[in-house]
Amino acid sequence: MYETPASLVEHGHAAAQALLAGPASTRPTAVVAQSDLLASGVVLGARELGLRVPEDVSVAGFDGLDLPWLAPDVLTTVTQPITEKGAVVGRAIEALLAGGTPADEVLPVELRLGTTTGPAPGA
Q1: Closest by alpha carbon to 121, among 34, 25, 39?
Q2: What residue ranges do the domains of the chain occupy?
Q3: In 3-state terms, what secondary structure has residue 31?
Q4: Rounded distance between C-alpha atoms, residue 84 and residue 66, angstroms
């Protein structure tokens, strides 16, 4: 019976076990996760497999969260303006409820380099 992991961190850990457990010649050299919590699970899973981050595999996420449990590593991430993102969603809902069409809005994001990404192995 398959048990669903309880958290995004556990999902990331399970993904690392599936993706990174093979021989170096077939495993990915980098993982970009949909969220920082998933990425943190990948980092923890890679460590458990004896892989060095970023020497053996680079890991990046998306959110810009502070993840102190990864210390000494600092996750490379794409930060997003979470408060403004919520405001945009609120305006979109208001427009929909009024029978209108929400305006297209583009929010700025920024790459925040941490210690979890580096050159590809052998590069």
Answers
A1: 25
A2: 8-79
A3: strand
A4: 18
